[in-house]
Design brief:
- This protein is mostly beta strands.
- 3% of the residues lie in helices and 53% in strands.
- The protein has a five-stranded mixed beta sheet with strand order 8-14-13-10-11, with no helix packed on it. It has a five-stranded mixed beta sheet with strand order 16-22-21-18-19, with no helix packed on it.
- 22% of the residues are buried.
Amino acid sequence: MPHDGSTTLSWTTNGATSCTASAAPATGWSSPPGKPVGEPSTAQEIISNLTSDTTFVLTCEDALGRQIQRTLLVYVNPPAPSLTMNADDYNIPINTSTNINWDALYIASCDKSGTWGTGSATVGAGQSDTTGSLTALDNFFNLTCYSDNPTIYPDPVFAQVLVNVEKLTLELALDSDAVPFADPTVLNWTSTFATSCTASGGAGTTWTSPAGKGTVTDQVYSETIYKAGTADPLDTGNYTFTLTCAGSGGQPDVVRQATLKVGRNPNFSEEIGNNPNNQ
C-alpha cells in the first residue's frame, strides 16, 4: 500500500466471546486492544498513516477460554521522492547574486541544468547554492532527481526556479517613419527596470516638453508629437528623436533613436506656383 496510506481490516468469528488486537510496530489498531468479535456481522476498522511494513494480530477467545489467533502482514511502500526548491530573491539587480535552496528527500542523486550549468547537486534537507553574478534577463535553475527506491519510483522528479534580473532595456519606435504633411506623429516606447528616461533631439517639436518620460517596466507609452509650443502638425522635414534611459547596478545607459520624414505641404507648393512674384 502507499506510504503513509490507509487500509481497512475486516474480520469475522464463530463462537468468540472476546477479541484482542496487537501489532508490530505499534499502530492505532491496538489502541484500544479490545475489538468486536465480528459475529454475527463482519467487523471492520480503518488503519491510517502506515509508514512501514506492519504485522496485525487478532487473538480471539471463546467461553471455554480457548484461543485462536490470526496474523496479517501489510506491506507499505517506502516514501516517494520529494523535491522542493526556492530562491532567496526572485528579482535581483544586474551583476548581483542570490541563493537557490532545495530539499531533496528520499532521493539518491540530483543533476543540475540551466543557468548554473551541469553537474551533480547534493541531496537531503536544507541544501543551498549561490547563483553567482547574473546578467541575463531570465535565469532558470533546474534540478532533476532520482529516487533511492528506483524499482518502486522509476520516474525522476523535477523542480525549477526562475530568477529575473532587473536588466535595463528600451525600445523606441514611430507609428510610421514617413507621414504626409498634417498627419499626426506618434512615438511609442517601453522599457524594463529604468530608473529614468530623458528625451532629446526632435528640434522644433514638443518631444522634449517635458524631457522626463515614463519608466514603468513593460508599460507601453505613446506620445503625439507637435510643433514646439503648439498643437499643430510638424513642418515638412526630417526629425530625429532620441530617448536615453538609465538603470541600476552600474549598467550603462541605453539610447534609442527614431527618425521621421514629414512630407511636403501641398498647399505650399500651389501657393508658390500661383504667386506672380515667382514668374
